[in-house]
Amino acid sequence: MNAHRPMRIALLALFLVATTARAQRAAHAPAQRVGSPQPYTIGVIETLHSTILGEDRILNIHLPPGYAADTVANYPVIFLLDGSAEEDFVHVVGGLQFASYPWIQWVPPSIVVGIANVDRRRDLTFPTTIAADKEKYPTTGGSVAFQQFLAHELVPFITSNYRAGGPHTLIGQSLGGLLATEVLFRMPYLFQHYLIVSPSLWWDGGTVFDLPHDAWMAPDIGVASVYVAVGQEGPGMVKPANRLAALLRKESQARIGYRYYTDMDHANILHRAVMDYFQWRSGK
């Protein structure tokens, strides 16, 4: 027997132990960053000067996947009231991303234009005759000017600077739902689809229903669908929403949808309503 064999075996064992230990330490070494962190963006920010409103307006704009690569394709546009980054823009874009997946196809890939607020009470309400509301909300009453901004500045800007070739959708909640209803009555041709969520139709004692609204009854006006949604928000919100849906079903030739959510309220209804609207609109 070789007298050095036990020594060689011992050295080999030590070598294997040391090698294994080094390998284990290497396997558990802290991960190393490659390059520097990069921003993850879901859109671009445009600043548009409005002559009608006499101020600059911020637009948050989401472009669908492949927009830059395909320079020919045109896309539908979703115009979102309360569209600031800290308001509804991010989660509506997320909902759209899911709804437009190839294996879902509730809606086609679309451009989203989030209209950031400056003074939402001013822009989204018409003048009120109720003294208490005038005193509590002194800047209200500018919705007609805001609608002129939409019709003559915002929509033309988007169609001129982006490949906006499909139907236009307007989404509004609360006072935004009030404004969307007013647009539907005053200039329904501006959008082809309307999602009206928890609309504040109680404003000025419900006089929005007194506005002339025979324009959207014409078969050639171009309104394809209107979807009204409301949750557990009290009779002051629910009854006018019911009334609006009934009026639309009676007098409009557009496809009309209505949903009353027994498990949603004013604070949490929007995300659910948007997703349900996308699915309803697809007919799936």
List the helices and strands and how they pair.
Elements: H1 5-27, E1 44-50, E2 55-62, E3 75-80, H2 89-99, E4 111-115, H3 120-124, H4 131-136, H5 143-161, E5 164-173, H6 175-186, E6 193-197, E7 225-230, H7 235-251, E8 255-260, H8 269-282
Parallel strand pairs: 3-4, 3-5, 5-6, 6-7, 7-8
Antiparallel strand pairs: 1-2, 2-4
Helix pairs in contact: 2-8
Q: Can you summarize this structure?
A:
The protein is an alpha/beta fold and 284 residues long. It contains eight helices and eight strands, in the order αβββαβαααβαββαβα. It has helices spanning 5-27, 89-99, 120-124, 131-136, 143-161, 175-186, 235-251, 269-282, and strands at 44-50, 55-62, 75-80, 111-115, 164-173, 193-197, 225-230, 255-260.
How does the overall form come out from the CA principal axes? Answer: globular
Number of helices: 8
The end-to-end span amounts to 83 Å
Please indicate the percent range of residues in DSSP E strands (runs of 2 or more): 15-25%
Could you say what the CATH topology is called? Rossmann fold
List the domain count as a whole number.
1
CATH superfamily: Alpha/Beta hydrolase fold, catalytic domain
Strand order within the widest beta sheet: 1-2-4-3-5-6-7-8
CATH architecture: 3-Layer(aba) Sandwich
Mean pLDDT: 91
CATH class: Alpha Beta
Helix and strand run: HEEEHEHHHEHEEHEH
Computed CA radius of gyration, to the nearest angstrom: 28 Å
Q: Main beta sheet: strand number and arrangement?
A: 8 strands, mixed
Give helix % range: 25-40%
* Structural class by helix and strand composition: alpha/beta
Number of strands: 8
Low-confidence blocks of residues: none
